TrEMBL record:
The keyword Magnesium applies. NADPH binds at T10, G11, S12, I13, N38, N115, E117, G196. 1-deoxy-D-xylulose 5-phosphate binds at K116, S142, E143, S167, H190, S203, N208, K209, E212. InterPro entries: DXP_reductoisomerase, DXP_reductoisomerase_C, DXP_reductoisomerase_N, DXPR_C, DXPR_C_sf, NAD(P)-bd_dom_sf. Its EC number is 1.1.1.267. Mn(2+) binds at D141, E143, E212. Its cofactor is Mg(2+); Mn(2+). This is 1-deoxy-D-xylulose 5-phosphate reductoisomerase. Residues 137-220 form the 1-deoxy-D-xylulose 5-phosphate reductoisomerase C-terminal domain. The gene is dxr. Pathway: Isoprenoid biosynthesis; isopentenyl diphosphate biosynthesis via DXP pathway; isopentenyl diphosphate from 1-deoxy-D-xylulose 5-phosphate: step 1/6. Residues 4-123 form the 1-deoxy-D-xylulose 5-phosphate reductoisomerase N-terminal domain.
Length: 371
């Protein structure tokens, strides 16, 4: 029985993982859980899955009979060090998830990573920590999970480029002249995936796809000139690889995160998702519009610039998205804040967590001044 810790257990990824463990009779036991602020749900889940420990990262939690209880991110680190586990699923959203990733890796746990900000902000430093503690990083994003599976069947020297698909978001066909009138509710209405608010906004601006491009480069060792993005509104093709002989190989499936989550946690699971029905299937593909969605194009520039540009991109985006969701700025202003923050020089290479925190704070201060 594989022992798993699930961080961010009440969010979209965490809930999907627990539902699969609950219903699919998987060879997994949940020994630890964390949530941001929903203490009653956290305790209820711990009781249901007979967990040993819980942590509420966003606030203090009172002691609970029969459970080791921890509070805040310091407590999360303590909980990880206290548990005997095989793998950690990090489904904490945003920059906060980086600290959890580093803590899990430092314990020697394999890391099933749904927190793309960990790779984007820490870059090669994250992989150095993993190597130091003999731990593996396994991608959970549907696109990167698909790429990992496709690359298993091909020698790296055979693969010319990675092809990442994007739904295009809710504004794929909306004229740019109407962007100023976009509301928060409209930006949250993703056409194919049910996700959290931050990632939904990022999918509307294609910033999420930009983060995925940066993540793919670090995960699989492909530079900006060998990563492609194609718009695929149906979200059936999750990713593809292009080989030097001219062939393209793809992974297809219904939009369901159960498969990439569980494949990251264990091997040999069966009947995880509904089989794809080809009888009524129609697929379409388009080139991305970098003019209307400049944050996607910025990702490729960031990969070429290197340094800490990716970290600054993430920080500025979090600041701008938060302001947009509070209706303090418009959708076009959100884009502008991120672009103008990246006009600064971000040449410093990341080599420690304290340095990451300092650079993140600097980028947030600059982005806030541009609101």
């Amino acid at each position: 029985m594989k022992r798993v810790i699930i961080l961010g257990c009440t969010g979209s990824i965490g809930s999907t993982a627990l539902e699969a463990i609950r219903t699919k009779h998987l060879d997994l036991t949940v020994v630890g859980l964390s949530a941001n602020s929903n203490a009653p749900q956290l305790v209820a889940l711990a009781r249901e899955f007979s967990s040993e420990a819980i942590c509420l990262t966003g606030m203090a939690i009172e002691s609970v009979s029969g459970l080791r209880t921890y509070s805040n991110f310091t407590g999360l680190e303590q909980m990880l060090h206290s548990l005997d586990a095989d793998i950690v699923l990090n489904a904490i959203s945003g920059f906060d998830g980086l600290r959890a990733s580093l803590a899990a890796l430092s314990c020697g746990f394999d890391l099933a990573l749904a927190n793309k900000e960990s790779v984007v902000c820490a870059g090669s430093y994250l992989f150095e920590v993993a190597k130091e503690h003999n731990a593996s990083i396994i991608p959970v994003d549907s696109e990167h999970s698909a790429l990992a599976e496709l690359l298993k069947g091909h020698d790296r020297k055979q693969v010319q480029s990675l092809i990442i698909t994007a739904s295009g978001g809710p504004f794929r066909t909306l004229d740019a002249s109407r962007f100023a009138g976009i509301t928060v509710e409209q930006a949250l209405a993703h056409p194919t995936w049910n996700m959290g608010k931050k990632i939904s906004i990022d999918s509307a601006t294609l910033a999420n796809k930009a983060l995925e491009v940066i993540e793919a480069s670090h995960l699989f060792g492909f530079d900006a000139d060998h990563i492609e993005v194609v718009i695929h509104p149906q979200s059936i093709v999750h990713s593809m690889i292009r080989t030097f002989d001219g062939a393209v190989y793809a992974q297809l499936g219904n939009p369901d995160m159960t498969l990439p989550i569980i494949n990251a946690l264990c091997e040999g699971a069966t009947s995880l998702v509904r089989p794809l029905d080809f009888t009524s299937l129609s697929l379409s593909f388009e080139q991305p519009d970098f003019k209307r969605f400049p944050l996607l194009g910025l990702a490729f520039e960031i990969l070429r610039r290197k340094g800490s540009s990716a970290l600054a991109f993430n920080a500025a985006d979090e600041v701008a998205v938060h302001a947009f969701m509070q209706q303090r700025i418009s959708y076009p202003k959100l884009i502008e804040v991120v672009l103008r923050t990246l006009d600064q020089r971000w040449d410093e290479e990341v080599s420690s967590f304290s340095q990451i925190l300092a650079l993140d704070a600097k980028a947030r201060q600059i982005a806030s001044s541009l609101l």
